[in-house]
Amino acid sequence: MAGKWRVLLVDDHVIMRVGLASVIGSDPELEVCGEAGTGAEAIAMYRTLQPDVVLMDLRLPDMSGVEATAKIREDFPKAKIAIVSTFAKEDEVYSAVSAGARGYVLKTLQCETLIAVIRTLVAGQRYIPAEIAARLAEHVPRTELTPRERDVLERLVYARTNQQIAAELGISDATVKVHVGNILLKLGAAHRTEAVTVALMRGIVHVD
């Protein structure tokens, strides 16, 4: 890696930002590139810094973290943003994901988990804790998988790798990762194996 992965911290509490910065600074491959205390500052700083990952507090003085996320994603659709919150209310998680957030984490998570979350987002994957994803699935219609997501899911049943799926469907590995992330979210699954199990139990896919 040529340089460190850059993280933008957004929280109106200085103490919280100091704590997050300390954890991030403990990893030699990560660095805090900026700190913002409001949604407006976050949007402006993202435009200037274009960090690899944003940790966005859910509640900010001028707008919600969800609103700030949506505004950033309007201009930067590939922005990797994780909402950070004290609680995990289903409607707030759903709103965050709908706005384009790639992750949703609680402020009570362990330090090593925070590092793992950042690395997960950097890799282009989603991070939604299993217990939150399970509740979130209640807000997502079970039949909402797109035809392409079903194509990918059918291949997950037979333990195909992302590379194999990409080759079979004529799409990129990155696109497969996005589809897999969406499948996990919609099925309320924490990983691929659980997604397959849920899909088979619900009759979404079948084994020949």
Task: Looking at this protein, list some descriptive labels.
Rossmann fold, 10 helices, about 210 residues, alpha/beta, about 50% helix, 5 strands
Enter the CATH topology name of the largest domain: Rossmann fold
How many distinct domains? 2
| CATH class category label of the largest domain | Alpha Beta
Widest beta sheet: strand line-up: 2-1-3-4-5
Structural class by secondary-structure content: alpha/beta
Poorly predicted ranges: none
Largest sheet: 5 strands, parallel
C-alpha termini separation: 43 Å
Task: Describe this structure as you would to a colleague.
The chain has 208 residues and is an alpha/beta fold. The chain has 2 domains: 5-129, Response regulator (Rossmann fold); 140-202, Arc Repressor Mutant, subunit A (Orthogonal Bundle). The protein has 10 helices and 5 strands, in the order βαβαβαβαβαααααα. The chain has helices spanning 14-25, 39-49, 65-75, 90-98, 111-122, 130-136, 147-157, 162-169, 173-187, 192-202; strands at residues 5-10, 30-36, 53-57, 81-85, 103-106. It has a 5-stranded parallel β-sheet, sandwiched between helices. α1 links the parallel β1 (5-10) and β2 (30-36). α2 (39-49) runs parallel beside α3 (65-75), α8 (162-169) crosses α9 and α9 (173-187) packs across α10 (192-202). It is elongated.
Present the secondary structure layout.
Elements lengths: L4 E6 L3 H12 L4 E7 L2 H11 L3 E5 L7 H11 L5 E5 L4 H9 L4 E4 L4 H12 L7 H7 L10 H11 L4 H8 L3 H15 L4 H11 L6
Parallel strand pairs: 1-2, 1-3, 3-4, 4-5
Helix pairs in contact: 2-3, 7-9, 8-9, 9-10
